[in-house]
Structure formats: C-alpha cells, structure tokens
Amino acid sequence: MHELPVMNGILRVVMKHAAMNRVTKVAAIQLRVGKLSDLEEKWMQHYFDYLTQGTVADGAKLEIEWGDVVMRCAGCDREFTTEPHTEAFGICPHCKGKGGKILSGKEYYVKNMVAL
Fold first, then answer.
1. Are 25 and 56 in contact (CB under 8 A)?
2. What is the pTM (predicted TM-score) of this model?
3. H/E run at residue 62
4. CATH number at residue 105
C-alpha cells in the first residue's frame, strides 16, 4: 500500500505543472520507476485513478518506464547493471565480486506529461 503516498506525491507534481502551464486536461503521465522501488504498476494506476477523481488528471493513464538497477562493484569499482530477484543480482560481471553500492534502481519521478 506504499503506492498511495507515492502516487499522491506524483499527483502534486502533475497538478503543479498543469497549473503552471494552464493545462485543462492531462491524458497521460510518463513515469520512470526503478526496478527496486517495490512499486507495482497495477496499484500505482489504481491509486492514481482514485486520487485524480475530479481533477484535470482524472482518467489519465500512467506510462511506466522501468529503470535498471545500476551498481558500483565493491571489488573492482566498476559500474554494472543487474537484475533484481535473480541469482545473479549484485554479482559483478567484470570481476565476479558480490555486492557494492546501488547507484540507481530505487527512484521514481515524472518524466513527461501528455496534455490535451
């Protein structure tokens, strides 16, 4: 259920930019969501639909681009992309070391809005 406060924050951003640009109808919101964010697309749209009732974003569709998980290896200090929920998660393809610092994959933000 952590999608509800996240979508509330997204809606605040959308409403702010809609007002600044005198938008009367938002048709779609393009989001970038990291694969480690633990957000589920189904619930994101569900809560967004609930929150946007009666606003300029009422009926808007979320278009979600899932962002890769990028890590910096603790062993060789090189960056690499890794897939969550797999056996190879966090294993450096360069040195085969395990672990490191997560550089991206937890983020979520509005990339673009489609207005009518």
1. yes
2. 0.86
3. strand 61-67
4. 3.30.2320.80
Q: What pairs with residue 113 in β-bridges?
A: 29
Q: How far apart are CA 74 and CA 100, in angstroms?
A: 4
Q: What is the pLDDT along the chain (116 residues), one digit of tens a residue?
A: 689 999 999 999 999 999 999 999 999 999 999 999 999 999 999 999 999 999 999 999 999 999 999 999 999 999 999 999 899 999 999 999 998 999 999 999 999 999 98
Q: Where are the alpha helices (DSSP H) in 1-116?
A: 3-20, 41-51
- Count of structural domains within the chain: 1
- The residues, ordered by sequence, that sit 6+ positions from 60 with a Cβ below 8 Å of its Cβ are 14, 26, 27, 28, 29, 48, 52
Confirm if 7 and 49 have CB atoms less than 8 A apart: no
